[in-house]
Design goal:
Length: 186
């Protein structure tokens, strides 16, 4: 049993039972080992969850970085969409990611920031826009995943339409991007 096997099995467990039900006891049982043997790879459950979050974010973390010829608005929109798609790939993906620190992704984040600044976005605005888009996306996905949790039923009054999560996300992303566009130097 290696670290990658533990993480992959933990992510499979997450997809099956949800974040609240993931436990080191269940994970050890699934792996056919005693619970203390997990501590060889992860000292705490928090450390395990952090590793799971990092692996779960791999599709976004390996997406192409912007190039100097890219339109920063198009790139910002697609980068944020990529983040959303990645969070939605896992059950409770937003909850798993929330509060995690993207230590392995710092170089990519710097490159993204440098691209925005080189494109005319003031540095502080670029930093705050990336943070706002990230938190908006996590919150949007958190609400979307909570809305479709197994066994949930929404008893909305007949005159209240259900939320179109993708349309709401796109509208919010446009508002963030419009605000940032007004602050950029062109």
């Amino acid at each position: 049993m290696d670290r990658e096997t533990v993480i992959a099995t933990a992510l499979d467990l997450l997809d099956e039972v949800g974040l609240d039900a993931v436990s080191t006891r269940q994970l050890a049982k699934r792996l056919g080992v005693e619970q203390p043997s997990l501590y060889w790879h992860f000292r705490t459950k928090k450390e395990l969850l952090g590793a799971m979050a990092e692996v779960a974010m791999a599709p976004h973390a390996t997406a192409p970085l912007p190039t100097p010829g890219d339109d920063w608005r198009d790139w910002f929109r697609e980068n944020t969409r990529s983040f959303r798609r990645t969070l939605l790939m896992r059950r409770d993906g937003a909850r798993l990611h929330a509060g995690s620190t993207p230590i392995g992704d710092l170089d990519r984040i710097r490159r993204k920031m440098n691209f925005l600044v080189a494109s005319g976005v003031p540095e502080q605005d670029a930093r705050m826009a990336m943070l706002a888009a990230s938190r908006f996306t996590v919150g949007s996905v958190l609400e979307e995943q909570a809305d479709v949790a197994p066994g949930d039923s929404t008893d909305l009054p007949p005159d209240v339409p259900p939320i179109d999560h993708e349309a709401a996300f796109e509208a919010g992303l446009t508002l963030i991007l419009d605000g940032l566009t007004h602050r950029a130097v062109t």
